[in-house]
Amino acid sequence: MSPRPQPLLLALVHTCAGLLAAGSLAATLYGGLEERRVALAFGVLVAVGELARRNDTQVREPAPLGAAGALSYALLGEAGGHPTHHGLAQVLAVVLAASLLGSVPHVARGQGPTLDHLSRRVLTVGFVAVCFQLPYGRGMFDDWSGPAYALLLLALLSLTALCDAVLAAALAHLRTGWPFGPVLRDELRAALGIGTAVIATGAVMALAVAVVGLWALPVFSVPLLLAQMSFRRYAAVRATYRQTIASLARATEVAGCTPAGHARRVAAVSRAVGRDLGLTEPELAVLEYAALMHDIGQLSLVDPVPAGATAALPAAEQRRIALLGAAVVRQTGVDEEVAVIVERQADPYPGQPLAARIVGAVNAYEEKSREGGPGGPLTALEELRLATAGTYAPEVVESLARVLARSSLTLPVAG
User: Fold this and answer.
1) Phi and psi dihedrals of 313, rounded to 5?
2) Which of 28, 138, 156, 256 has the smallest C-beta neighbourhood within 10 Å, fewest atoms?
3) Which of 412, 378, 409, 376 is nearest to 274 (CA)?
4) Where are the alpha helices (DSSP H) in 250-372?
5) Which 8-state DSSP code applies to residue 306?
6) How far apart are CA 344 and CA 287, in angstroms?
7) Model's pTM, two decimal places?
8) What distance in Å separates the CA atoms of residue 120 and residue 116, rounded to the nearest whole number?
């Protein structure tokens, strides 16, 4: 059985983060701020980072500057050559207050940070602060200096990044029921991108402020802001690429070859099934593109298939249409992997790639459920189960059943 969402455990994580944040705020308000000028500078940095955050659920770290500033403050032992005395509670209080303040404009637009994002920020910063501030306050790092001290900060930040990836994967697993292993792989892979820049900037900021003071903060913020802009441009290119593929996929609908929304529905459910079966994020992207374009071969037919229902055609005709579709995909310049999946979606399943098995089964389900009236979805699923002897992969059909049982992706009948 596929794991299901676990709201109680998810609420427990949020509660732990909330209690830690509330306790830190209360302790800081009671004891007052140490080194107010330093706290204000780092608070402003974190708030500016949140203001510059990118409200995109596909981005692992939407506010890299804020994250780097928070980690740097948690690792700060000196400022301008003078020892600091802020502790764990003040680190969390300043970071949380600045994060919430910087999120106000986003909240006003209905795009505020999620509970998962805030919980990750509190727990991650709390982890690195425990690892550094408590030993530092006891003088355990007094003999560390030079390269050894820099390596210590990098080691702590690397361990923190690993823990953050595990936490992010756990939250996604608890919220959606996606398999933990593939989600963790995606998180670790994403951490090698902007996450590496966040770690390096956090360590450099802490070291620079210790030597030259707070003027180091704006200087060392610039490279990370430039990196953030580069990632935004890359994300914009990817979004444009996907929109181009979606527009190409709509050509079959505009030409009257397939019902409206058919390709989008097949793509949405195919991605969910792929996630359930453990595909990684790059594999899911290829799967989604192939699902969007799986029917494009019908544009080459002289006589259109009634209602675009290719699953009911003889196997030889299905393969011919799939070959025509792959030829069209290759002419568009889309990734060759997408063309291969489109080409092989009608092959006998034992020799198909997993993505082609998924597209073939989900397409057949959508067509059969559309034709079956009110009881169509259940009837269609049962027909696919009966056909697993040689047409559809049993593991894909069972995954489809799990996805439909626990989500709202029950393909609606197109009007």
Assistant:
1) -75, 160
2) 138
3) 409
4) 251-254, 262-276, 281-292, 315-332, 336-344, 354-371
5) G
6) 13
7) 0.76
8) 6
